[in-house]
Design brief:
With about 160 residues, the chain is mostly helical. The protein has one domain: Up-down Bundle (Four Helix Bundle (Hemerythrin (Met), subunit A)), CATH 1.20.120. The chain contains five helices and no strands. Helix 2 packs antiparallel against helix 5.
Length: about 160
């Protein structure tokens, strides 16, 4: 019971400090999780219930949302956590792996962007299936990455002041 309370406390931040690392990290994860939910909704709608406007709007902000989150993590979060952890090689290897996953997600997002645009313009059952698989590949990878960060990095993030 006490373990569950501690785990749930790690998922929330109640401070009023907008520069709080934990608060910013939680917001970053929430924006990516919302994006994953949208991508899953698009995948589930294919081919017959695809909403072109929603698909194109999601595609339009896809890479920007991902890049903003990754930029925060790589320029602010990871350096702060590495400093706090004292630069152990094992931790540095984990951070490098996470950065590598960012590159992959950004590449994948570019492909999703193009496929959504193509489907909105000239959708066929064949392209719907390909788009669905591509969308699922992206949001499943992103969710795995987010969950790892939640379990491994969130507890290390600086406590609210």
């Amino acid at each position: 019971m006490q373990e569950d309370m501690k785990k749930n406390a790690d998922l929330h931040c109640v401070c009023d400090d907008p520069s709080c690392l934990k608060k910013r990290f939680l917001a970053c994860m929430a924006s990516l999780e919302a994006l994953c939910t949208e991508l899953e909704g698009i995948a589930d709608s294919l081919p017959d219930r695809f909403d072109s406007q929603l698909g194109l709007a999601t595609a339009q902000r896809l890479l920007g949302t991902i890049k903003k989150a990754h930029d925060f993590e790589e320029s602010t979060l990871y350096p702060a956590l590495v400093e706090k952890a004292g630069h152990p090689p094992e931790f540095l290897a984990v951070i490098e792996r996470l950065k590598y996953e960012h590159w992959g997600d950004e590449d994948f997002a570019g492909e999703v962007f193009h496929q959504i645009r193509q489907f909105a313009a000239h959708g066929t059952p064949e392209t719907a299936e390909r788009l669905s698989w591509t969308l699922r590949g992206l949001f499943e990878n992103m969710r795995r990455h987010i969950e790892f960060e939640r379990e491994f990095l969130l507890p290390l993030s600086r406590a609210c002041q």
